[in-house]
Structure formats: structure tokens, C-alpha cells
Design brief:
alpha/beta; four-stranded parallel sheet; Dna Topoisomerase Vi A Subunit, Chain: A, domain 2; 201 residues
């Protein structure tokens, strides 16, 4: 049994911080100490920002994005291409693609991937909502921007089957050599995918 080294309020802060992905118990203690040392500059504004987030942040009922508006800013943006829908696993993936600024399309967040071992089936994801969006018409292409994992590819194949009755193009992100990558440092799976996805010069 470990000794308590701080008051219950500090212990609770450390325990909650330790639940944040990427922060273990030791990192959570360091973060808590830093926040407490910078109470006025960091801890108080962080507390206020978190209270605002709890009060105002919503999940978009249309695409699954996180925003203070429902429908979200992306769904209400009239400059977006309504005919292209990018399907992603999580909101973090949506944000990454937006930062890249490669396409001005609409999005759909699945909320994860199919994983029978973890009890995650189609009903636990936003797949039915995706099919309903496509059924409304107007979508020419669905881009399956899921991770190149077994679960991601299984999910992509399942979605492709669900959309097979609609007249649209289902595509996926290219897999292979990253920009600036050196072949000698890449794993065999990446090299194999790059060769299969080769394009003309």
C-alpha cells in the first residue's frame, strides 16, 4: 500500500490526469505539480476552459464531429463539396485531415472500428447513420480514411458492402511510402502496400 503524499484534492487531480491518454501516474504527478506551481497562469484558466467545454461542447448530430454548434461548423459550411464524404475513425483523424487542408469535403466520424473481441460491432459505431446520409442522395464519392490496421481495413470492407447498392465511388487512402521516407527504414508491410498502390509517372 502506497503512502499518501498530498491532500485528497491533489491526489484526485493526479488520478484524473493519469486517465488522459499518454499520461501515466508519473507524468500525471509532474503535470499536477506544474499546474499547481503555475496556479494563476495555468490551473485557473484551465479549470475555466474545462468548465466552458463541459457546458458548451456538443457532438454534431450529423457527422459526429465535436464543436460548440450542432450541426457543426464543417456541416454548415456552404463552401464544402457535398458530393465527397470522408469517413474517419475518430474526431482526431478528422482534425488531422483538416490541418492537412488537402480536400474541402464533408466528413463522417465512425466513433471507432469494428472489433468483435472488444465487443464493438456495427451497432456500436455510426455506420447506420453513414448509410442514411448516403441514401439521401448527392454523394458521388465516399473516401474511407481509416487506419491501415486489421480493424480499420475490416471496417472499410464492411462499409463498402453496406454501400454497394448505391451508385457512388468508394475509395481509400493510398498506403505506402511517406513523403520524405527512405525505403531502407520502412517495414515490409508498408513497402508491399506501396508496390501494390503504385501509380504512373
Amino acid at each position: 500500500m502506497s503512502k499518501r503524499i498530498a491532500g485528497p484534492e491533489i491526489e484526485r487531480l493526479i488520478q484524473l490526469l493519469a486517465k488522459v491518454p499518454g499520461l501515466g501516474p508519473r507524468s500525471a504527478r509532474r503535470a499536477a505539480l506544474h499546474l499547481i506551481k503555475k496556479k494563476e497562469a495555468l490551473l485557473r484558466p484551465l479549470s475555466s476552459a474545462m468548465a466552458d467545454a463541459v457546458e458548451h461542447v456538443r457532438i454534431c448530430s450529423n457527422c459526429g464531429n465535436i464543436d460548440t454548434l450542432d450541426p457543426c461548423t464543417i456541416c454548415t459550411d456552404p463552401r464544402r463539396d457535398d458530393g465527397t464524404l470522408i469517413v474517419v475513425e475518430d474526431v482526431g483523424d478528422l482534425w488531422a485531415l483538416e490541418r492537412a487542408g488537402a480536400m474541402n469535403a464533408r466528413f463522417h466520424v465512425l466513433g471507432g472500428t469494428l472489433s468483435p473481441l472488444d465487443g464493438i460491432g456495427p451497432d456500436q459505431l455510426n455506420i447506420r447513420q453513414l448509410v442514411e446520409r448516403v441514401a439521401q442522395g448527392g454523394i458521388r464519392e465516399v473516401i474511407l480514411a481509416v487506419n491501415a490496421t486489421v480493424e480499420g481495413q475490416t471496417t472499410a470492407h464492411y462499409i463498402t458492402d453496406q454501400l454497394s447498392d448505391f451508385e457512388l465511388k468508394a475509395t481509400r487512402l493510398a498506403h505506402g511510402v511517406p513523403v520524405g521516407g527512405e525505403l531502407d527504414y520502412l517495414d515490409e508491410g508498408t513497402l508491399s502496400a506501396a508496390l501494390k498502390s503504385r501509380t504512373e509517372f
